[in-house]
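User: Can you predict the 3D structure for this chain?
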Amino acid sequence: MRPTLVISRRDFARWVALSSITAAVPACARDPERDEAHGVDGVDGRALDPVELEARIARLRGDGNPTLLDGVRVPMRDGITLATDVWLPSRGGTPLDGPFPVVLERTPYGRNRPSRSERSRAAPEEAESRAEVAARFTARGFVVVYQDCRGRYDSEGEYEKYVDDADDGFDCCAWIVEQPWCDGRIGTKGLSYAAHTQAALASVAAPGLASMFLDSGGFANAFQGGIRQGGAFELKQATWAHRNALVAPEVLADPEAKAALEAVDLHAWFARMPWAPGDSPVSAAPDYEAYLFEQWRAGTFDDYWKVPGLWAEGFHDVWPDVPMVHMSSWYDPYPRTAVDNYGGLRRAGKSDVRLILGPWTHGDRSLTYAGEVDFGADAVIDGQGAPDFWELRLRWFEHTLHGLANGVESGPRVRYFVMGGGPGDRDTAGRLRHGGRWRTADDWPIPGAEIRRFHLRADGALTEAAPEAPATLAWTHDPRDPVPSIGGAITSGRPIMEGGAYDQVEGPEFYGSTVMGRPLAERDDVVAFRSPPLERAVEVTGPIEVELWVASDAPDTDVTIKLVDEYPPSEALPEGFAMVLTDGILRLRYRDSYESPSLLEPGQVYRIRVKAFPTSNLFAVGHRMRLDIASSNFPKYDLNFGTGEPEGAATGVRTARNTLHLAPDRPAALLLPIVPS
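Assistant: Here is the predicted structure, written as structure tokens:
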């Protein structure tokens, strides 16, 4: 009897992906018609001269009135079909012969509904329809394919968030490259979830994949950004589940379930944590509640997480070596995803990997502001390499799929926005004019940036000089009165929370605020450290990390950090302004390992490192760099109830008395990447 081979989900997925590379290449390789459309002579493989290339591409361009193949049923390997729209370049109502390169977007938000990503500075509040976007791309010689993810809108199957997108993406691409209108080359695009679906299919080396533009997503590691962070669970997953369950096919077919979800008071539910299956705001949609609690309770970084679709960095060696852009922003949940994918893919030997990082909230790349702070007229993506976001992607795909030399080939590897440098007053809308500017670099982290240690001192100072004598600072974390989330890298949180740059002051618009107008730094459960007023401007660009020595009387607790640009009081800002830049969290059971968490010994001092998302900011003369430390940032992250119970399954609540140790042999410090002026 042959022995049974047992392998992990991760290794099985990698084996399938690597096998598929060999299987897929011959189907798309050395097809003369396809090579001709791509600017390579089909006889001898020579590159075409620009005039000849332009002539050949010209015959692929439509007139802006594409032909729609509506709701094509594309079969998956298990027999279910996914609803797919195909937009063909046409002239005078007649489809052109092709074949064409294809631009694909896989989405759970409706293949025929507008994507909030399709906006520009000219109309930042109104997204173009799928038909309008398809018209732009087909007019430049691309077939456009939109597909509903499994179990969403018109696609068959059961929806389980993120889980099926690797296999389904592979099968979708395999179907596309066999169609007569496809030249064998596929570019992918999309925001957020539609970036996650791109990373998923790349992680299994989907056939035909030739170019990518990932916008604010593509989980490098969902355990460290997007679902969990530092061991804590991101509660945007709960608000997202409620909002999207309302349009789930099974809910729309059940009036009772729909009415129950519509009647949910999320504010009341967030005030009555902990929840449990059958007793949550999404209980009326059992499938959505099931995956919510499954992800919440998956508190160990194991094979559950180490799969395509949730852990791209584990499959960077599998990703095809194709040109790709990773884009995110400072007030988005995915800047760490973008930089980790960028760096990991570069280390894996991928030859053309690019990075764009702006000052926006999630997908709002054509707005000059985030929260209550404005970054200036140049803060938008429009004008950075192209007049608008559509043209930016069109040029990208024209270069990478059509082969046109249009300037993309000489563009910067890294483009990032440094916040700060503005006048520091308020505009007519009442927003702080913080300003900023775009910069380019050859790599990330920024070459030449120096990591400098700013030590935490018992008097609240933040200095490069280490403390001379031991001291301690303590605070009490009460899960029934957590520190409220006031902006930051948040999306999908409405109506409970909002992302962006905000003054760190409690107010009625921020859930959990109890004393209106109180600065967070004045709360008893927040410990703040400030640099002296700066005598010269300091640019901080890159990863943010804090090294601490802490103890607790509870078996588990959290440590949160927040980097703040603190404006001094002025005529325009009588109370000053504490602008949040980035934040992070560590659940202390994960202090040594995410694979093997362990509870705390009460009173024992532990050395920990807490990571925040990367950022870029110019701290102006007279400003202070500020670090806030606490044990909650709610409702951005789930509450640590202090009992040490399993993740997502708490039944009790207890306070935690947490102590920060500051001493010459325990030099707690904020580590900042300083870019030379």
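Confidence is low (pLDDT under 50) at residues 1-9, 15-34, 40-46. The longest strand covers residues 538-552.
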